[in-house]
Specification:
CATH architecture of the largest domain: Alpha-Beta Barrel
CATH superfamily of the largest domain: Alanine racemase
Strand content: 15-25%
Shape: globular
Radius of gyration: 23 Å
Number of strands: 17
Largest sheet: 9 strands, mixed
Number of helices: 13
Helix content: 25-40%
Bound molecules: pyridoxal-5'-phosphate
CATH topology of the largest domain: TIM Barrel
Structural class: alpha/beta
Length: 422
């Protein structure tokens, strides 16, 4: 949540003449600064790379920006691999972290040259039959129990991802016998955590595993992928994670556990939310008010643009643009037009008084925002814009009704006649 936005009401008034609300606006400078800080935090590690989690913001202009900053891509589906490739991210700059994977997905992933991250020991045969075993393979780990996990996520025991410690060792032995030369290990045991000790604790877990792998199999793991999960302060009272301290925490564990044994793996991260979350703004217009049992402010965006509040009851800070210094004196629900009573960007939120035409900025919509959108109620997906060096440009146009109908078995004659009439 930002108290100061990187754009003004006057700018939005200008932009919206060309690009009507609602839209999500990405701030390239904010994304760039976040990546640079992350890279600085891990600059001590040779081979460090951030593989941005494509699912957070699967938009080529954003991926191209990240590519120029030296990031790779973490993909979970073939379309995500294609998006990464189309954005200049190819071969080893892609990690393919999938689960319940189909043979044709392995075939595409191996063909792309991506690093395959195996979710399960049963996947070895499937990978071999579909694509052959590549020279580099990563294995996804699930300890079942993770120290301090109550703070981070549900329990690792309940997580569908990864292999047990015993399976991981067995899988690596099998893979080695099948010709794998370069190994990585990976785990993701948190979601949206603001705990600064999450990565260091995860590193301890994974470095311990790397040591066991060395002792029992004689294999020196070449990279350790700490995956995603670092959170952002959605609420005003929350503080951002000190990523430099996080990097230093991981370095200390590395020096203590790995360096004495001569192990020097590269560290990879797959942060999504941390990189783009705070730098995407859902810009929407007030279309009306409603005074019934509660006070409502209606806006032209819906949960189709940003599902997190409806799906998780997630808090997103809302700024009334141009009224940043106006006192908040009214408690309202900020609602979209979906025929679902969870289509509320805010419930019982204290805001300045608004009127139709006011611009609301729903913050922290840059990750898991547009990408989670959907077309329920025939609501169309909104546009995405990029703010770079004071200018905005369209990086994804808004969906049209024709886009929405394009996969349907529909009366083509009716559609053509309808188009002619308009
Ligand atoms: C979702 C996901 C990420 C990114 O998570 P964030 O919370 O956005 O950092 C990274 N890696 C994997 C395997 C994921 O599933």
């Amino acid at each position: 949540m930002h108290t100061k936005l990187p754009f003004t009401l006057a700018q939005v008034q200008e932009w919206k003449k060309e690009y009507p609300t609602p839209f999500i606006l990405y701030d390239a400078a904010g994304i760039t600064a976040a990546v640079r800080q992350l890279q600085q935090a891990f600059a001590w590690n040779r081979g460090y790379r951030e593989y941005f989690a494509v699912k957070a913001t699967p938009t080529p202009a954003v991926l191209r920006l990240l590519s120029t900053l030296g990031c790779g891509a973490d993909c979970a589906s073939v379309p995500e691999i294609i998006l990464a490739q189309a954005s200049g991210l190819t071969g080893r700059k892609i990690v393919f972290t999938s689960n319940q994977t189909l043979p044709q997905e392995y075939a595409e992933a191996v063909l792309s040259g991506a690093i395959v991250n195996l979710d399960d020991i049963t996947q070895i045969d499937r990978l071999e039959q579909a694509a052959g075993i590549p020279e580099t393979v990563c294995c996804r780990y699930n300890p079942g129990k993770f120290s301090g996990e109550g703070k981070f996520i549900g329990t690792a025991y309940e997580s569908k991802f990864g292999m047990t410690p015993a399976q991981l060792l067995q899988a690596m032995a099998i893979l080695r016998d099948k010709g794998v030369k370069h190994f990585g290990i990976h785990a993701m045991l948190a979601g949206n955590t603001l705990e600064p000790d999450y990565y260091p604790r995860l590193a301890q877990e994974l470095f311990g595993t790397a040591v066991t792998v060395r002792q029992q199999l004689g294999i020196a793991v070449e990279f350790v992928d700490l995956a995603g999960g670092i959170g952002i302060p959605y609420r005003p009272e929350e503080k951002p994670v000190d990523i430099l301290a996080v990097g230093e925490g991981v370095r200390q564990v590395y020096e203590k556990m790995l360096t004495p044994l001569g192990l020097t793996p590269a560290i990879y991260t797959e942060l999504g939310r941390f990189v783009t979350g705070p730098y995407g703004y859902l810009v929407t217009r007030v279309i009306g008010e409603k005074h019934t049992h509660k006070e409502y402010v209606g806006v032209d965006a819906t949960a189709a643009c940003l599902l997190r509040p409806a799906m998780y009851g997630a808090y997103h800070h809302i700024t009334v643009l141009g009224k940043e210094d106006t006192p908040c004196e009214k408690v309202v629900d900020v609602v979209g037009s979906l025929c679902e009573n969870n289509d509320k960007f805010a419930v019982d939120r204290l805001l300045p008084r608004v009127q139709p035409g006011d611009i609301l900025v729903i913050q922290d919509a840059g990750a898991h925002g547009h990408s989670m959108g959907y077309n329920y109620n025939g609501k169309l997906r909104c546009a995405e814009l990029m703010l770079q060096e004071g200018k905005v440009r369209l990086i994804r146009r808004a969906q049209t009704p024709e886009d929405y109908f394009s996969t349907l078995d529909i009366d083509e004659q009716f559609m053509a006649a309808r188009k002619d009439k308009r």
